[in-house]
Amino acid sequence: MCELVSGCDGPTATVAVVSEAKVRRGCGCGLVWMVVTIGFLVVAGLWSFASFNRVNNQDTASGIVVDVDASRDSDGDTTYRPVIEFLATDGETYRFTGRLGTSSYPDPGSRIDVLYDPADPRGATEKTFPNLWLFPIIFGAIGIISLLFLLFSRAKGISFGSTGTSSSPRGAAPGGYFDPFEAVPTAKAEPAGPGQRPADSTVEFRRAEAAFDEESNIRYRIVAKDEAGQEFYSELLDEDPTVAIMQRGNRLPLIERDGLWIVDFDPEGG
Fold first, then answer.
1. What share of the chain is helix, strand, coil (3-state, %, to 5)?
2. What is the distance between the alpha carbons of residues 27 and 182, in angstroms, rounded to a whole number?
3. Whole-Å CA distances, 215 to 41, 155, 177
4. What are the pLDDT digits (tens) for 153-203?
5. Residue 163 to residues 122, 184, 256: CA-CA distances in angstroms?
6. CATH class label, 58-131
7. Which among 1, 80, 96, 123 is most buried, taking Cβ atoms within 10 Å?
8. Please, which residues have CB within 8 angstroms of residue 7's CB and are 6 or more apart in sequence?
9. How far, in Å, CA of 112 to CA of 224, rounded?
10. β-bridge mates for residue 115, sequence order
């Protein structure tokens, strides 16, 4: 599941809020990141295995650069690939174009070691470190870095797609930060807030928080503060109230209900 998060304390600070789309996107981004990470590692492993198999099971021949294949990209840059000939064990001469292109012009007549399958010499390739190992190293490095980032994120309780953090301990409420890799506690059935009389009849909106209820529906509540710094909360809402509050103004009224002072907010109100 995802997290509920965060906010800012300055009176003119930008409000940080987790909307339903962002909460769900936070969950999805972590999964997508994991799939992409695994994909990079799998590609690196398969490519490395193929290169290892070539080096250990194919024949080696000495090839010679007989021509150069030049191509120009959309930016006008020219890439050169050597055209190589080699003599196979069947007595035939084969020619192929190198796989990797470079900006340097190959030297015609230069020698390059070639790997080939005696059963299919036409599938030959250069026996060079960049050709065999460059891409496995790149994909493997990206996969390992991504995996380390995922592990670090989990250890530190960082969520993908969130819009802020809180200094409260994990699982704390209100304003708590929930580990995205742990189940999110269900939203409280009743609002929480101090019972003492507030310093003013209105309070300043600070943030909106989101969490899952017992039926896995996302619910929202408003967090506001009075002049003395006390926090007050609204009843649970079905929709993110941030936009409506920003349109109406940053001050919200308080009402007393069941011995608690709560933020009075009507989603349909003017």
1. 25, 30, 45
2. 11
3. 37, 28, 20
4. 766 544 444 333 333 333 333 333 333 323 333 333 344 444 456 667 888
5. 55, 17, 31
6. mainly beta
7. 96
8. 15, 16, 17, 164, 166, 175, 206, 207, 209, 223
9. 72
10. 60, 125
Tell me the whole-structure pTM to 2 decimals: 0.47
Cβ-Cβ contacts under 8 Å for 111 (sequence gap 6 or more):
62, 63, 64, 65
Helix (H) or strand (E) holding 23: helix 20-57
Q: Indicate the residue type of 257.
A: R
Nearest to 66 by CA among 48, 51, 86: 86
Helices (H) and strands (E) in the chain, counts: 4, 10
List C-alpha distances in Å: 240 to 142, 208, 232, 244, 261. Answer: 37, 7, 17, 9, 21
Residues 6+ apart with CB under 8 A from 226: 198, 199, 200, 203, 204, 232, 254
* Binned average pLDDT, 10 residues per bin, the chain of 270 residues: 38 37 52 88 94 92 94 89 94 92 90 94 92 93 90 60 36 34 34 54 85 77 84 85 82 82 79
The pLDDT value recorded for residue 197 is: 61
Amino acid at 41: L
Contact 97, 80 (CB under 8 A): no
Query: Domain boundaries in the chain?
Result: 1-18+168-270, 58-131
CB atoms within 10 A of CB 44: 20
Distances (CA, A) of 141 to 40, 78, 147: 9, 28, 10
